[in-house]
Every structure is written in structure tokens, then in C-alpha cells.
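tool=predict chain=A
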Amino acid sequence: MKLARGSCSRRIDREGRIGCVERGVQDRGGLPTDELIDRAEHTLEDWEVLTDALAGALARRGLLNVDELRRGIESMPRDEYEQAAYYERWLFSIETILTEKGVLAAGELDRRAAG
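tool=predict ok
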């Protein structure tokens, strides 16, 4: 079986058959790119610090764990994921998970932000 490079990852099932698993939006390993990795230190903006603190506070209260945070990020639509900054992905995930758990109502944050 010939697999298209970059479109999926190889996997072997329990019967030993080789198959194809579609890459998630976050699965970038081995994909070609001309973009350089910015390794420079940078100062976080206030909202980024607050997002990190929010995730920590929710974790301490048992409302969110790192696996849920990751799953929420990985569930982002591809175009939104690719346009979002690192902590914007966290915010998307936090809202998604809290809505799934009934802590937030769907659209509640947008309604509150609108006034």
C-alpha cells in the first residue's frame, strides 16, 4: 500500500495490517515547511499570563486537566487552529471543555463580552 506523504500516518492494526490515520491539525511532525522557528525569548502579554493562570485554577478545582486541554485544542477546526496563537488555542479549549461539562452555557462568554 502506498501512502501519500504528509497526508496521513502509518499505523499497524491488531491483525498486522498497515493502514492510514489522518493527521490531526496539531500533528506537524515531518511536514515540510519554509518557516523558521522563533526561539527568541519573549514577554507574555497580560491576557496570556491570565489564560495560563485560569487553566491552572481550573485544574486545581478539578474542572480541567491537561489531557482535556489538549483534546480541546486538537478539536479546533483546522483554519481556526492555524490562525490562532498559542494561548488563543488554550482559550478555545477551555471554553469548549467548560461548555461540554455544563459549567458554561453555549455562547455565554460571547454574550457577556458583548455587554
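Residues 1-6 have pLDDT under 50 and may be disordered. Helices lie at 46-60, 66-74, 78-83, 86-100, 108-114.
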